[in-house]
């Protein structure tokens, strides 16, 4: 994992993720249907994704897998025969999950089915109606203002039929059966930051980790929001208990600062790892407490699961003005931001991968580092070096109770330095790794 | 209790409490005697008060019920026969519990028995000498300055005899035998804020709660300060263990901000309920740590009892300049302040009454609120509504460990909203109330 | 101990410590050798010190007691025969533990063995090379600049032979076998603040405590830094477990503010006692978290011992510009600073000595203090006195769980007042001392 961080060409990875977003941008996705399948097929070019199809009507906890929705076309024509609203120009025009309709109506009647953004009159909003049969169009308020009174022909050529909910999953085994979950929602149509950026980042992480030597097993999920997480959890109820750490990935392509939303547990190892990585990144960031609103951490952190799943994003949902509008387009995201997000995720995973506990083999007093060449020989200087300090901290706290992250937090040294000092001490047989999980840590997490 | 908050005419209740204070103001109260009895008889017009008489000499823990003190008259006459100090003009003139005396003496000798307030020369101080036989007068420093040298006739026509300590008690049973204690000291003579305001508020609360459907049983005490609390606790040592929550009520009639003094436990449910109510009241307030000085919380929080009893006041004792002087009169208190205090107390009691724990019946993932009409059907909007957020929080934390107050605190939502969301979820059978007390909460309180 | 604080003439004690420093200043100390022995012999004039000799080659945990180093002379002569560097002018000139050498060499070659302080060109640095065979001289950069090119004669007439490591120890028994450790390093040559000030203060403390009635047993150590602490711990591995509290004493003679470095446990009783003493001293101070760098607390707080040992200093090592230079001389330290440090140490020891737990004999309600003459008889006054408040706090919290330090911390009253109130209550049989250690406190410390 250390090697991955130093060997990855992040600029190239950023470009690659951006191209991935551009490739997926035109597809009309929803929580079910061909758009979702096509998206997964694109990703299969990079990673050996399993594509699962869960039939309409399957009971998943309190929910039911809905009918599959597909769109052939959708438009509104003026009396003059001009398509004043056209799904083919932007798939956001059609309220997602609109039922089929073909009829003529006055502008006054049509208005009840039109959604606009009066405060951003040039943007098309994104609206859905998954669980209530309904139809509608979304248009720029400026466009609506230009429409003349008169009769319009409305055509929504969609199907809502028995079919399946589709999701993509890639399981990458590591040395331990404990899992790290990386999950993104892939159900939004032409919207880049939310959440094509998340899709591209998870796919890139999966691609990179394939080449690494891994402690944990990794599970990458590309699922429709809410119903997809519920479906996966319902089908994998037992498997879910293997998830030790998880992150919900979304909104990672804009240039805003980082935001971390803690898991419901509040101070789980994943929470501490992310906060540590952010704190030592030199980047601007903000940490927020868990709230049961947001993305699929809502489901992963429901009380029946209470998984240690947080969410690391850039500007959070609902807080950038382009959110859920046609302005969340290819201009909002950029390769540099994507590359930065990727590196931050790898920094977090590196901590998880290396966060072991060690036992000082000379716990009584300090071992003589000098005769092992680990400590300068000239005495009397006012300061110790950074690496020497890291070695002293690791030796002092390696009583089998403190993990390297515990040590990094208490010493306020970067995890990377603590890890490097540890490697050196292990090499000189001054430390041995503990194999049993620390009861201390487990109890701490359960108590919260 | 919710109904009580919405149906009570607080303006009228404020007027009523003010009139009660005005009615009780002229009576000369002490820790024993006819003034205390007369006060209780006045209150009996509103609430079915039990009046207890504990004989002089009764041993109550380390103390002994003192002799009963009564006053017929007290004055100081000049040589010219003018009453220069007259108990009938203000009962504060007589040091409370003064022994009888009738003699002539020089002004010089009399001075040793006169108490004044040099910094507030127009006010009469309030002084007592309950446990040391003594006599004295309190007068305005300005009045003292006007006294001529010469001989004065001093008459204190009091009795200190075998009798009783009197207190009033009203027990209002609720569904549970666990009790909420509301206690006030009623031993001060003509002093309005300290503590006729407390007496009036406790009486009004008792009157209002009689009409409510109550979870807890309520105990209202009108007792002489210190010795009354000690006496009640000594007689009711076992009964005291039923007290789950309590508040000592005093100084609730002035226009100052609210002060809450925590119980000795520091973060008991009553402490959290009051702090929550204050935090969401929009009013100015200050929270203070427990200290073993103050009113009868000193006794309720003594280590042998350690009851969860705090004290919610407006300006605390000793911190308003009129404290324990003749300026603590009918001008210092007002109906609006009394009404506000009453409402704050009811807000606190509402929290205690409703602070149950619930079990989410669909703990794995969120239940589908939309198909129950509990969640908007149109998707894509940036925010959830306040009530939707409250429902999500209640569902997320209702694992049998978290009370509604826990949820309100963590979500930073007002208890009332959390409670309303809970009611809605219970109605839809998504929650059931836990019947066993949460070990989690009990341990938390014990640990402090 | 209270008596000691009031009876000690601190001004005289400060002068005495300063004279002690002046007496020891010229001696060339090292981690072994005659200079260390001579230092201990000087101290033996005041306190009955045991002088231990641990033979070269003794294995002490991961270390080996080194050969003994002694210096007869050391100098560098110019071609003109002038001693341009002369050990007899300042023992700092010779790198401590330099091996013997006698040869001629060019200035260019000599330079590799010369240490200077370019940023403080008038000062001689202090350097050591204990564990790597090497030789060198330390000189002022200004002096070096004045040296002419040419040949120099270098003579280091030292011996590095089988011998011993010497340390001084004084054990002063108290009523309990639990120990308080006061340790200082005594291995530095002519350097006053670091650490002749520490030596003088520990010796003075030992001298004063001999005359006191002591609860704890006290152990005073005068040891070479690092290797001395390791040696003592290796030889006294079991005895070390008797150490309940400890302080490493150094840099206590300058006029800087106080610094306290917490023990590894972070909030042990010694940590709380020092922080309390500092907080109520009216002096400027700063508290720092434990770090595994510094003086011998590094060894006492190694994970195999984890003793409750902190370090109370004035300006810490490395943070005053004169540190480890010839400017750490008799001008840097002064009697007033030494006296202040001594008093602060005594304040801390007073807390440890008196920090018992008590049981309120009247736990139900307050006892009647007034009839015992412990409480004013006149009622109605706005405040209680300070001592009355302390008595109320002690009674309220003396449930067998809270120590006097717990009570002082919670009440924010000075320990001395709490202690005085306690004595008064014990005298009136209202409190009895608990004999068993509080499980509560022990668990608290272990948990950290």
Biggest beta sheet attributes of chain A: 8 strands, mixed
Report the oligomer. homotrimer
- Strand arrangement within the widest β-sheet of chain A reads 1-10-12-11-13-16-14-15
Q: What form of chain A results from the Cα inertia axes? A: elongated
Low-pLDDT stretches of chain A: none
Greatest contact pair? A-B, 37 and 28 residues
Determine the mean pLDDT of chain A: 95
Helix content of chain A: 25-40%
Number of strands of chain A: 19
Radius of gyration of chain A: 26 Å
- Portion of residues in beta strands of chain A equals 15-25%
Structural class of chain A: alpha/beta
Beginning-to-end CA distance, first to last residue of chain A? 30 Å
Contiguous helical run count of chain A:
14
Structure, explained:
The structure is a homotrimer of 448-residue chains. Chain A has 448 residues and is α/β, with parallel strands linked by helices. Helices cover 33% and strands 22% of the residues of chain A. Chain A contains 14 helices and 19 strands. An 8-stranded mixed β-sheet of chain A has the order 1-10-12-11-13-16-14-15, with helices on both faces. In chain A, helix 11 packs across helix 13 (415-427) and helix 12 (404-411) crosses helix 13 (415-427). The longest helix of chain A has 20 residues, at 335-354. Chain A starts with a helix and ends with a helix.
